[in-house]
Design brief:
mainly alpha; 2 domains; about 130 residues; 7 helices; elongated
């Protein structure tokens, strides 16, 4: 195929991966989504260094599709923001277990996926929600 990406000791491999993929995170913190992209790139880069060649796990892809669906449908994000604002008015935190359960049931998601969705929507569309 080609020359292997990684040569040298594992320590050298990890240092190279850090310099190539983790250092840009410091510069990426001002761009929405860039931190997630840098972290994903670093995780993928470190797989060969760890001696493990495996695909991205299905839950990570499911969360990616979930977030993409909200990105493509701003009306859905706006509706979720309105629901979360209403929960705030009722004295409930958007990140509370009850709020997560409600969104999970409504959207047909696991509690973990609902928590990821809420965090993303609040961060990108309604940062005033608490």
């Amino acid at each position: 195929m080609g020359e292997p990406i990684w040569n040298g000791s594992r320590r050298e491999q990890v240092v190279a991966a850090h310099q190539r993929f983790l250092t840009p995170i410091r510069r990426a913190d001002r761009r929405p989504g860039a931190l997630l992209l840098c972290a994903l790139a670093a995780a993928v880069a470190l797989l060969p260094a760890a001696g493990t060649l495996m695909a991205i796990p299905a839950p990570a892809l499911a969360q990616s599709n979930l977030l993409q669906s909200v990105r493509r449908d701003p009306a859905r994000a706006k509706a979720l923001c309105n629901q979360l604002r209403e929960m705030n008015r009722q004295g409930m935190s958007a990140t509370s277990k009850e709020a997560t359960r409600r969104i999970a049931a409504q959207e047909g998601l696991s509690p973990v996926d609902a928590e990821v969705l809420i965090t993303y929507v609040v961060g990108m569309h309604c940062p005033e929600v608490r």
